[in-house]
Structure formats: C-alpha cells, structure tokens
C-alpha cells in the first residue's frame, strides 16, 4: 500500500542547530524532502537564492500571501517567513516525508490546518550552549543575537504544543533519533486508516460468515 508522506514540522530556538541536523538527515535517508521557505530577510554570507531560502521583497511576499501561494507564514524578528504550498503538496503526494523548518507561530498554524502533522522541537542541551552557538556563528550582530534570545524565551512557552522534543547534543545521535521518531509515527492508527478499515471489514465479514 502506498502511503502519503508525513508532514513534519521542525522548530527550535535560533542557534539550536536545526539547519545542520536537517542537512545530515537528508544526506542519510532518502525518504525526506525539505521545503525551501520564502523570506524577506537578507541572505547571510554563503546563502544563495533558492537553496536556503527564496529571498524576496516585502511587496512580492505580500502578493504571495494574497494569492494563497503559502500554506503558512509568520513574522519573525522584523521579517516575513513563509512556506510555499506547491512543493509541499507535490512531495507529499509522491510519498516523501516533507520537512518544514519553521518557527513556532507557523508550526501552530500548520497543526491547526493539518492536525496529522508531526511537530518536533529541537533544543540545544543548555542555554549557555545556545548563546555560544549564536555568537560563534559570527553572522549576526549583538543586537540581532539579543533579539533572537528574547524570541527563544517566548518560544519556550509554546513547546507543549509539539509532539516530541529532541535534544541536540550529538549530531549523529540526534539525526538517528529524529528518523526513529518519524518511522514510529508512521504506525499511528490515524495514519493508517485505509489499512485499519480493511482489517475491520474483513473481521466483520468473517464473524458474519461464522454466525
Ligand atoms: P533564520 O533567519 O535564522 O534563517 O530563521 C529564523 C526563524 O524563521 C527560524 O526559527 C526558522 O525556522 C524560521 N522560518 C524559516 N522559514 C520559515 C517559514 O517558512 N515559516 C515560518 N513560520 N518560519 C520560518
């Protein structure tokens, strides 16, 4: 039986290491597809259009909202971020497990719209480590880092809405853990309704035949 893929949301504080984790996950396993978001923030050094993000102006982004081209969007630290709809739908139909690496407001919108989505929250082992990672990245000003830490404090309040917490202490172990969570989640009864209905029908037919 062919399964439609799982829609997976991965959130986590800025600096939690989501990007590196997702890269490794995609290199290691072939069942995943990573959605590339649209944003109005400027590219960081080394980032290119269409790879990390589709970089856009506020005007273009707002047009995309109006035309219904995004399945969710949010404002984060003075910029828009959103998930283009077409790629996600296409990959899910192909049976891929589609990953949205998005912040919490967007994650909650996805949960509302697609209750069957799987929500994972990635956190570093400690806040000292988070601060160290944000600073050593060297791509953000002190001001921006402060904003991102404040935002992390807000996001921490919403973790209960997620299905699983993943502590990013060791890259390999963490990637394996995420894959195990996804694999186990495939077996949730609500993700297998067609199969379960078939089993129920057969049992019913069998018990009728025996009466
Ligand atoms: P960054 O600027 O560090 O690349 O991303 C800032 C935050 O925006 C991260 O928490 C990231 O997960 C989130 N983000 C990236 N793309 C999207 C998106 O399409 N929608 C939403 N809601 N958040 C996003």
How would you describe what is shown here?
This protein is of the alpha/beta class and 211 residues long. The chain is built from eight helices and nine strands. It has a five-stranded parallel β-sheet with strand order 2-7-1-8-9, sandwiched between helices. Strands 4-3-6-5 form a four-stranded mixed β-sheet. Helix 1 packs across helix 7 (171-185). The longest helix is centred in the C-terminal third of the chain and has 18 residues, at 193-210. The protein is globular and about 75 Å long. The two termini are 31 Å apart. The structure holds guanosine-5'-monophosphate (5GP). Guanosine-5'-monophosphate binds next to strand 5, strand 6 and helix 4.
Q: N-to-C SSE series?
A: EHEEEHEEHEHEHHEHH
Percentage of residues assigned to helices:
40-55%
Q: Give the strand line-up of the largest sheet.
A: 2-7-1-8-9
Please report the distance between the alpha carbons of the first and last residues.
31 Å
Number of strands: 9
**Beta-strand percent range:** 15-25%
Tags for this entry?
five-stranded parallel beta sheet, alpha/beta, binds guanosine-5'-monophosphate, 8 helices, 211 residues
How is the secondary structure organized here?
Layout: E1 7-12, H1 18-28, E2 32-34, E3 37-39, E4 53-55, H2 58-66, E5 70-76, E6 79-84, H3 85-93, E7 97-101, H4 104-113, E8 118-123, H5 127-136, H6 142-156, E9 164-167, H7 171-185, H8 193-210
Parallel strand pairs: 1-7, 1-8, 2-7, 3-4, 8-9
Antiparallel strand pairs: 3-6, 5-6
Helix pairs in contact: 1-7
Bound molecules: guanosine-5'-monophosphate.
